[in-house]
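Weekly sync, protein design subgroup
Attendees: M.S., D.O., the rotation student, P.L. (late)

Item 1: inverse folding check
M.S. brought a backbone from last month's batch and wanted to see whether the design step gives back something sensible before we order anything. D.O. pointed out we never logged the input encoding, so this time it goes straight into the notes. Structure tokens as presented (83 positions):
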């Protein structure tokens, strides 16, 4: 299964609005915007212009990579606890 492909199918765009990403992470729009402004998220956040009011986005590839990394961590913990 290709996480990036599935995200692309769901969102139909290569960029996901930061508020939608917050839903994946269990954060409110305010919380994720605060963390994004402090560069505290586990992936880069981009704006398509230099305006302070420009919307923020996350690239599908970056979110997919983070999801895959978290899945691998969870699998490792799960396997360790299966012994």
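Designed sequence read out in the meeting:
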């Amino acid at each position: 299964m290709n996480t990036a492909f599935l995200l692309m199918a769901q969102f139909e765009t290569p960029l996901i609005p930061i508020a939608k990403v917050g839903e994946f992470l269990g954060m409110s729009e305010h919380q994720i915007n605060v963390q994004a402004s402090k560069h505290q998220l586990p992936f880069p956040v981009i704006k398509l212009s230099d305006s302070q009011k420009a919307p923020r986005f996350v690239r599908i590839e970056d979110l997919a990579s983070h999801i895959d990394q978290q899945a691998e961590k969870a699998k490792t913990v799960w396997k360790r606890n299966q012994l």
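Discussion: The two ends are 27 Å apart (CA to CA). The mean pLDDT is 94.
Action: P.L. to compare against the previous round before Friday.
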